[in-house]
Amino acid sequence: MYKITVIPGDGIGEEVTQSVIQMVDSLNLPIEWEIVSAGLNTYNNTGELLPESALNSIETNKIVLKGPITTPIGYGFKSINVTLRTKYNLYANIRPVKNLGVIDSKYKNIDLVIFRENTEDLYAGIEEKISDNECHSLKIITKSATLKIAHEAFKYAQSMNKTKVTVVTKANIMKLTDGLFLNTVREVALDYPNIELEELLIDNMCMQLVLNPSRYQIILTSNLYGDILSDLCAGLIGGLGLVPSANIGKDIALFEAVHGSALDIAGANKANPTALALSAAMMLDYIGENLAAKKLKNALNEVLCYEDNFTYDLGGNLSTSDFTQKVIETIQTL
Ligand code: NAD
């Protein structure tokens, strides 16, 4: 029996987590879900953002399926996502981006994976107010964290028979911090002689991705660039409703969609649960339920082969709950 912690989160979180729990339940696996609350709604109801009960559940079960959590923009508390990633040292944020079904996108043949360092960089959130007119933020890059994410990317490349890893920095300007990231990756690359290391600056990478994304297999980068490139790549395949992610640490792994709480459509039964469902498939692969993971991915892909099954974000009319039923029906046929 697997016991998995679920944090529904804010905005569309409740809708998409319910949908994905139903999809995974239809795979008939021995999974027990432990639903705990955290985030802005929890704060508004209880005065706590990240209650002890949520932390205890994560530490006991060690596998987490998480919905998005709203973070106030430009003021207020530190992101709960960042807190969880640093508290549990979830150093690798892995984000596969691939065309799905017949979803209209600028390019076909996109099949890349972003490996984003997940615990430091400007995301450390170490900021200082010098005066009303001047604020500073500290960019932190360490060799130890870079080694971990770089090995993760190269090991993945090797296991998936990929031939190239593209490291993305701005080491021409941030010679010390991004320079350390780049030099550490160069060092790691020597351990994997069969895999080519390509080096690009972040500005050039943005242009190359918009011009010719199918050139890329694995993108290895630091926290902030990885965050921005993920949304860019999501746009290339049809939007944020489609891109999953895994946050992997030594003991704990947390799976969530790349998108946020989408407050503009929350509660409207319009959200696309595909990104979280694909995150659940990554979770099933992680716990060794590879066949079930494959079934879920195949069912999603098949459902998305018909425009009638598209949710609002893809230009369709199908509700979250009807989309969920389509996926469950398709799983039964596989
Ligand atoms: P967002 O991802 O919530 O939404 C951006 C746009 O994409 C919106 O128009 C939204 O409707 C659409 N969208 C996103 N996911 C969708 C889905 N599954 N189905 C259909 N449409 C979808 O980004 P934002 O508006 O910049 O952020 C909103 C909040 O979410 C912020 O507080 C932010 O901090 C938070 N956030 C949380 C996470 C997380 O918990 N991991 C990630 C990103 C943003």
TrEMBL record:
EC number: 1.1.1.42
Start and end residues of each Isopropylmalate dehydrogenase-like domain: 3-327
Family, as annotated: Belongs to the isocitrate and isopropylmalate dehydrogenases family.
PANTHER family to which the protein is assigned, alphabetical: DECARBOXYLATING DEHYDROGENASES-ISOCITRATE, ISOPROPYLMALATE, TARTRATE, ISOCITRATE DEHYDROGENASE [NAD] SUBUNIT ALPHA, MITOCHONDRIAL
SUPFAM superfamilies registered for this protein in UniProt: Isocitrate/Isopropylmalate dehydrogenase-like
Coiled coil residues, start to end: none
Source organism of the structure: Acetoanaerobium sticklandii (strain ATCC 12662 / DSM 519 / JCM 1433 / CCUG 9281 / NCIMB 10654 / HF)
InterPro entries for this protein: IsoCit/isopropylmalate_DH_CS, IsoPropMal-DH-like_dom
GO molecular function: isocitrate dehydrogenase (NAD+) activity; isocitrate dehydrogenase (NADP+) activity; magnesium ion binding; NAD binding
Name of the protein in its database record: Isocitrate dehydrogenase, specific for NADP+ e14 prophage
A single BP term in Gene Ontology: isocitrate metabolic process
PROSITE patterns assigned: IDH_IMDH
Keyword Oxidoreductase on entry: yes
Any Pfam family: Iso_dh
Annotated keywords: Oxidoreductase
